[in-house]
Amino acid sequence: MRAADAQALALLPAPDTYGPFGYGPWWVLGGVLLLLVLAAYAFAWLWTRPRGLLEPPPPPPVPIDVRSVKEKYLGLIDEVAEEHADGELDPRALAQRLSLVLRFFAHESTGVVAEVMTLRDLRSADLPTVQGAVEQYYPSSFRRAAKHDPDAAIAAARQVVATWM
After folding, report:
1. d(CA 79, CA 138)
2. pLDDT, tens digit, 9 for 90 and up, residues 49-81
3. Residue 51 confidence (pLDDT)
4. pLDDT one-digit tens code per residue, 118-138
5. pLDDT-above-70 percentage for the chain
6. Considering the entire predicted model, what is its pTM?
7. Burial class of residue 96, CB neighbours in 10 A (0-12, 13-18, 19+)
8. Can you tell me the distance from the alpha carbon of 48 to that of 41, in angstroms, rounded to the nearest whole number?
9. Count H helices, E strands: the chain?
10. What DSSP line would sit under 109-151, residue for residue?
11. How far apart are alpha carbons 142 and 93 in whole angstroms?
């Protein structure tokens, strides 16, 4: 077929073809309305969802039976005193053990992580009785030639636990 014949054929009306069908304006308006509703739901979901990682609330504080905690730690102090009396603990080990017992006592009765605190941390943690006793144990704990009174150290530990509120 030649190019001229193809052009002539293209200009002839075809009986089976129809022009574009015109849709009513309601279809377009309904589609736009549907898109707006979907966009509003998406916006509301994005705007109201929680941000970041959710953390569960902390558990409620467990009431502490101070009397049983005192009895437990007075018993531990007695055990340390017996070990010292039996010669199993030298003055340095006695001071370190008593310091540790008092720190665990403070942790168990207040929740403050006192067992890993330095003396400066104990001062700022508002634990004056524990801080005072631990301060007495520091020279014996860290210096070999420090003067040490084991009876006074044990009495100080007992006093801290017995007078705790």
Report:
1. 21
2. 877 777 888 888 878 888 999 999 999 999 999
3. 77
4. 888 988 888 889 999 999 888
5. 85
6. 0.63
7. middle
8. 11
9. 7, 0
10. HH---GGG--HHHHHHTT-HHHHHHHHHHHHHHH-TT----HH
11. 10
CB atoms within 10 A of CB 73: 23
* Alpha carbons 99 and 55: distance in angstroms, whole number: 35
- Whose tokens are 């739901």? That residue is 41
Considering only CA atoms, which of 94, 70, 100 is closest in space to residue 80? 94
Phi and psi angles of residue 50, each rounded to the nearest 5 degrees, phi first: -70, 145
Confidence of residue 33 (pLDDT cuts 50, 70, 90): very high
Q: Is there a contact between 153 and 136 (Cβ–Cβ < 8 Å)? A: yes
Residue bearing tokens 């916006």: 43
The SS3 of residue 84 is helix
The answer to whether 89 touches 83, Cβ cutoff 8 Å, is: yes
Q: Which residue has the tokens 């941390």?
A: 121
Say if CB 66 and CB 165 are below 8 A apart.
yes
